[in-house]
Amino acid sequence: MTGIADRYTEGRELEISGGSAAAVASRVPVLMYHEITAEPVLSPHLSVRPDEFALQLGYLRGGGFASLHAAELARLMKVGGGGLPAKPVVLTFDDGFADFHDCALPLLQRYGLTATLYVTTGWIADRERPGGAGSAAASRPRTGMLSWNQVEAAAAAGIEIGAHTECHPQLDQLSPSALRRELAGSKSLLEDRLGAPVTGLSYPFGYSNRRVREAAVAVGYEYACAVANRLACTSDDRFALPRLTIGRATRLPGFAQIVRAERLPPEFLAYRLLTKGWSAVRHARSALNRKSSE
Ligand SMILES: [Zn+2]
User: What residues pair up with 116 in beta bridges, in sequence order?
Assistant: First the structure.
């Protein structure tokens, strides 16, 4: 996040699915949103205007799509994908912007859809700053984030609440102890506050590697979202669930192509190309970090 939208590009191949009905049914669009506002706090590129968002939800509702929580999708993937609805879609929201409460949630309710919200716990508006966690405060947006009451209201409205770490770091660059702290701290804080298990994680910037994914398993998550900008398959790794970036560039015709699992719009080609560059940089950085700590 934090204005470096182009980093949301971890991914593999641009997916075009035009095959059999069975093949289409096993592909699930998992959509990644951030801000739903005409006046973005941090990243215009990743924001969606409320009127455009309403059009998208209207399309889903009118088209007979069934929204599921990411946790439900992960659970169905675990048992081979059986039980998926005919036209599944997963809507996810990263970071915990206040406009989820003020704008997205009322629209989701109006159109009878549900979603998953991944909260960066260090950014919660009225959270007490933990002692010694200066980086959380430093990296925290100054305004526009959800309060605890608003997170609780979302949970009470049937929204799945997942974790998006404590301070929103690039997890693949952290030491093992810092990595565990980020993954476990946000999970336990949300669970304590909400009084319910938090089983889902969204990697900040979509970044993960094998070490990060293994840490997520060890901490007790049951699935985790990456970005990847392709449709999810029921055979995918549940700890690198691919999502599709929905942003300001997404128009309704392209949105319709995505959720019908037919074809991805041209902007996803750019996302893919950027991904490859960033992926190489991150792997080089990780190798250097390992070397310097030896
Ligand atoms: Zn984020």
Answer: 92, 160
Asked whether 135 and 2 are in contact (CB, 8 A), the reply is: no
In this prediction, residue 266 carries a pLDDT of: 75
- Which pLDDT tens digit goes with each residue over 14-29? 343 333 444 444 899 9
Q: Is the pLDDT of residue 276 over 80?
A: no
Res. 163: pLDDT tops 80: yes
Say what percent of the chain tops pLDDT 70.
78
On the 0-12 / 13-18 / 19+ scale of CB atoms within 10 A, 293 is exposed
CA–centroid distance, 291 to ligand 1, in Å, is 28
Side-chain-facing half-sphere of 294: CA atoms under 13 Å? 6
What residues have their beta carbon closer than 5 A to ion ligand 1? 1, 94-95, 204
How far does residue 31's CA lie from ligand 1's centre (Å)?
14
Output the CA 94–ligand 1 centroid distance in Å.
Answer: 5
CA of 168 to the centre of ligand 1 (A): 6
pTM over 0.90: no
Output the CA 81–ligand 1 centroid distance in Å. Answer: 28
* Helix, strand, or coil (residue 200): strand
**How many Å lie between the centroid of ligand 1 and the Cα of residue 100?**
14
Calculate how far, in angstroms, residue 1's C-alpha sits from the geometric centre of ligand 1.
5
Q: Is the pLDDT of residue 151 over 80?
A: yes
Output 15 or 285, whichever has higher pLDDT: 285
Taking residue 136's Cβ as centre, other Cβ atoms within 10 Å add up to: 22
CATH for the stretch 5-293: 3.20.20.370
